[in-house]
Design brief:
The protein is of the alpha/beta class. It contains 13 helices and 14 strands. The model has no long low-confidence stretch (mean pLDDT about 95).
C-alpha cells in the first residue's frame, strides 16, 4: 500500500510530534509531504517561522492558512448561539477547531494534488476521531495516515521523539522534562498532563496563560457592553468588530480579571476520563451575555426546548460530527430561535467572574408592569384560581386515592 501514495498533506503545528512525524512519513512512504498549518488564533508567536521549520524537518512545501475570522464567525459563534456546553462547563475550544482545520487540510490536499492526509493525534484522544470523521465526510477518496496507530511507529514517547529529531538534525525546542500538553486557539487554551493528571491536585497559579490567577486579579471591576444582532456578537463597547477581533479583545480584558478558568475530569469519546484545565475568557463573557439576552427575548417553550438542543449540539461537536446532516438541521433550528435575539448586554468582570448586570433589546418580552408585585390592569389575580385548579386536577385526583 505504501507505494500507492504519491503525496501526503500533514496537519502540522511545528511541535515535537508533528516535527518528527514529517520525516517519518517521508521515510516510510517515500513520497512528498506537504506541511499544512492552520492559523486559528494561536497567538504568542506559535506560527512564527513555521515554514522554515517545516522545510528544515523535510517538508517539500509548507502552506499556512489564516482561518481566524472563519473560525470565530462560522464555528465559535455557532456553538455560542446554540449555547453548547459539554458536561456542564467545557466550551469546546479544541473540539470546535478541529473540523475547520481538517476541512482546510482537505482543501489544501485538493489544491496540491495529494492522495492522502495525515495527522499527529494519539490513539487515546478525541482529536483522531474529529480529524478523521471530517476527512471521511468531505473526502472519502483520500487515504488517511495516522502514525500513532501504526505498529511500526516507535516515536510514542517524548524521549524517543527527541532522540529521533536530534539524529536527523530536526529543529525542536522541547526538552526531555515533562511539560503540560497544551492546545491554544482564539477561543481557548487547554492544559493537560503533569500534576493535573491527578484530580486531587489544584492547578497551580503559574499554569494559566491567557488569564491571571484569581488572587492577582484587579480589586476594581471592569465593565464591557456587547451588542448582538440575531444572536451574533457584532460590537464591543459600541464599536463594530469582526469576530476574531472581538473575541481577542474580550480575551484580553477577561483574562486580566481571571475570567474563564475551569478544571474538569471529562469523559473522552474513546471511554477514558481525562482531567484538564481550560481558559476561555472571551467565550465565557459571550456565553453569559448571550444567555441573559435570550432570557428576555425567547418565549418559555422555545427557551426550554433549546436547552435540550444545546446538549445534543455540544455532544456532536465534541464527538467530531460537525459535517453531518443533523448538525446542519440543528443549526436551522438554532438560527430560527435567534431572529429576535438582538440587543446589548452589560457584563461585569470581577475576580474570576463574568456577570451580566444589564440587558436591553428592542424585541424584549419582559414587561415591568407584569413582573411588578403591584397588581395592574393586565393581570387579574382571580384568574389564577381557575388556572391552578385545572393545572392541579390530576394531582388532586391522585391525592384522593
Amino acid at each position: 500500500m505504501a507505494d500507492s501514495i504519491s503525496k501526503i498533506v500533514l496537519a502540522y503545528s511545528g511541535g515535537l510530534d508533528t516535527s518528527v512525524i514529517l520525516p517519518w512519513l517521508k521515510e516510510k512512504y517515500g513520497c512528498e509531504v506537504v506541511a499544512f498549518a492552520a492559523d486559528v488564533g494561536q497567538g504568542a508567536g506559535e506560527l512564527d517561522g513555521i515554514e522554515e521549520k517545516a522545510r528544515a524537518s523535510g517538508a517539500d512545501d509548507c502552506i499556512v492558512a489564516d482561518l481566524r475570522r472563519e473560525f470565530a464567525e462560522q464555528y465559535c459563534y455557532r456553538i455560542l448561539k446554540a449555547h453548547a456546553l459539554y458536561e456542564h462547563d467545557y466550551m469546546l475550544g479544541t473540539s470546535i477547531a478541529r473540523p475547520l482545520i481538517a476541512k482546510a487540510q482537505v482543501d489544501c490536499a485538493r489544491e496540491v494534488g495529494a492522495d492522502a492526509v495525515a495527522h499527529g493525534c494519539t490513539g487515546k484522544g478525541n482529536d483522531q476521531v474529529r480529524f478523521e470523521l471530517t476527512f471521511m465526510a468531505l473526502a472519502p477518496d483520500l487515504r488517511i495516515v495516522a502514525p500513532w496507530r501504526d505498529p511500526s511507529f516507535e516515536l510514542t514517547s517524548r524521549e524517543a521523539a527527541l532522540e529521533y529529531a536530534e539524529s536527523r538534525g530536526i529543529p525542536v525546542t522541547q526538552s526531555k522534562r515533562k511539560l503540560y500538553s497544551r492546545d491554544r486557539n482564539l477561543w481557548h487554551i487547554s492544559h493537560e498532563g503533569g500534576e493535573l493528571e491527578d484530580p486531587e491536585n489544584e492547578p497551580p497559579d503559574d499554569l494559566w496563560v491567557l488569564s491571571s490567577p484569581v488572587s492577582e486579579a484587579p480589586d476594581e471591576p471592569a465593565y464591557v457592553e456587547i451588542g448582538f444582532e440575531q444572536g451574533v456578537p457584532v460590537s464591543l463597547d459600541g464599536v463594530r468588530l469582526e469576530g476574531h477581533e472581538l473575541i481577542g479583545k474580550l480575551n484580553a480584558v477577561g483574562g486580566k480579571h481571571a475570567v474563564g478558568q475551569i478544571q474538569l475530569a471529562e469523559n473522552r469519546l474513546v471511554g477514558i476520563k481525562s482531567r484538564g484545565a481550560y481558559e476561555t475568557p472571551g467565550g465565557t463573557i459571550l456565553y453569559e451575555a448571550h444567555k441573559v439576552l435570550e432570557s428576555i427575548t425567547l418565549d418559555r417553550e422555545t427557551s426550554h426546548y433549546k436547552q435540550h438542543v444545546g446538549l445534543k449540539y455540544a455532544e456532536m461537536v465534541y464527538d467530531g460530527r460537525w459535517f453531518c446532516p443533523l448538525r446542519e438541521a440543528l443549526d436551522a433550528f438554532v438560527d430560527s430561535t435567534q431572529r429576535n435575539v438582538t440587543g446589548t448586554v452589560r457584563v461585569k468582570l470581577y475576580k474570576g467572574r463574568a456577570t451580566a448586570v444589564g440587558v436591553k433589546s428592542p424585541n424584549s418580552m419582559y414587561s415591568t408592569d407584569l413582573a411588578s408585585f403591584t397588581m395592574g390592569a393586565e393581570y387579574a389575580p382571580t384568574d389564577a384560581t381557575g388556572f391552578i385548579r385545572l393545572f392541579g386536577l390530576q394531582m388532586r385526583g391522585r391525592g384522593k386515592t
